[in-house]
Design a protein that fits this description.
Low-confidence stretches: 342-358
Number of strands: 10
Largest sheet: 6 strands, mixed
Oligomer: single chain
Structural class: alpha/beta
Radius of gyration: 27 Å
Length: 358
């Protein structure tokens, strides 16, 4: 249980103890009969249990505590140095040059002298075991944090020389947890580009498959989705957030596990949108599904020990990278099990989309 729940339990139990003590004192002084005292004690126990288990106070306190922790972490985070005159980039290529990054409080780096180059206009997939640093790479690309050593470059320029504002103008990020604001689908997509026309919104909605969602809603893209997008499923919210990223028209789009909660049809729609954007954007995808990974121009394989195992095309890695062959084999086995009748859920994958091991 969280600290907020423990505090609530202590307060409720203290109140019940006080109620019992007062009841006993009133009984001994003659102000309560035995039957009234018993009734009062039963009522105190019942109300205490209701307060601890039925009322939303505990959940509310827990949510408030988490929100305060996030806010405190944001406020206490060190400010990144900004250049007086931001440098201009030549294109949307991305380069990591011997980049090392260690999270505060950790003894070992999550990335240790990692180097790779992503050409402008390409689609790159990043794969590796859990905790290998895939999300850290996207955070460094977006300059949410700076590397401990080494250099992250966009368009041949160190992101520290571009500045945070300049980097975010060139990067659109979609994380696994999508959040929508109370308002219409169109308004939520337009957050990516406040000046976008309705025609622009319709275009990116089609790229991300939001138009399919809109078809079943009473007012289409002008349907109000509720606070947090609570009237939509997780996969539908993710499609809206991807459309929002496309609406920004940033030259670099980072998709950090953004297709993880999508079903096969939704993922296929997003893949078509990525394919349609090929060349117009540099797209970096953190993914686990073979359909998404195999379609990439370039695949980066992390070794899970802070380093980069290999990089190349799907065929090159299948031929020369044992870790990547295991990655493919694991997903092939999962797909075969699912097709044989096991639970598939949102993570099922078509067998014909999977590679064969060499």
């Amino acid at each position: 249980r969280s600290r907020a729940h423990v505090v609530l339990d202590v307060v409720v139990l203290a109140g019940m103890t006080a109620s019992v003590a007062v009841s006993v004192l009133l009984l001994r002084s003659g102000h309560l009969t035995y039957s009234d005292c018993v009734a009062l004690l039963v009522l105190s126990v019942a109300l205490s249990g209701f307060a601890m288990n039925a009322l939303p106070f505990g959940v509310g306190l827990d949510m408030a505590e988490r929100a305060l922790e996030h806010l405190s972490g944001f406020v206490s985070a060190p400010t990144l140095p900004e250049p007086q005159t931001p440098a201009q980039v030549r294109d949307s290529s991305i380069e990591f040059d011997a980049v090392t990054y260690t999270y505060p409080g950790s003894e070992s780096p999550v990335l240790d002298r990692v180097s790779f180059h992503i050409p402008a206009g390409s689609v790159t997939a990043i794969v590796g075991p859990s905790g290998a640093g895939k999300t850290t790479i996207t955070r460094l690309m977006a300059r949410f944090v700076d590397a401990d050593s080494g250099t992250v470059r966009i368009g041949g320029v160190d992101v520290r020389e571009i500045g945070s504002t300049g980097v975010l103008e060139k990067v659109a990020v979609v994380f696994q947890d999508a959040y929508l604001f109370e308002g219409t689908l169109r308004d939520n997509i337009r957050l990516g580009s406040p000046d976008a026309t309705d025609a622009d919104i319709d275009e990116v909605a089609a790229l991300a498959g939001v138009d399919v969602i809109a078809q079943r809603l009473p007012a289409g893209l002008d349907t109000v989705v509720g606070e947090g997008g609570n009237t939509l499923s997780g996969g539908e919210r993710q499609r809206v957030s991807i459309a929002r990223a496309f609406a920004k028209k940033a030259p670099i789009v980072l998709l950090d596990e953004a297709t993880a909660s999508l079903d096969v049809d939704s993922e296929a729609t997003i893949s078509q949108g990525i394919e349609a954007s090929r060349g117009a954007h540099t797209i970096v995808v953190v993914a686990h599904r073979m359909h998404t990974v195999r379609a990439a121009d370039h695949i980066i394989v992390l070794d899970g020990q802070g380093g980069l195992d290999a990089a190349g095309t799907h065929d090159e890695l299948v031929a020369g990278c044992e870790r990547y062959r295991r990655f493919c084999a694991e997903r092939t086995e999962t797909a075969a099990w699912s097709l044989a009748g096991g639970p598939t859920g949102d993570n099922r994958t078509n067998e014909h989309e999977l590679p064969t091991s060499h």
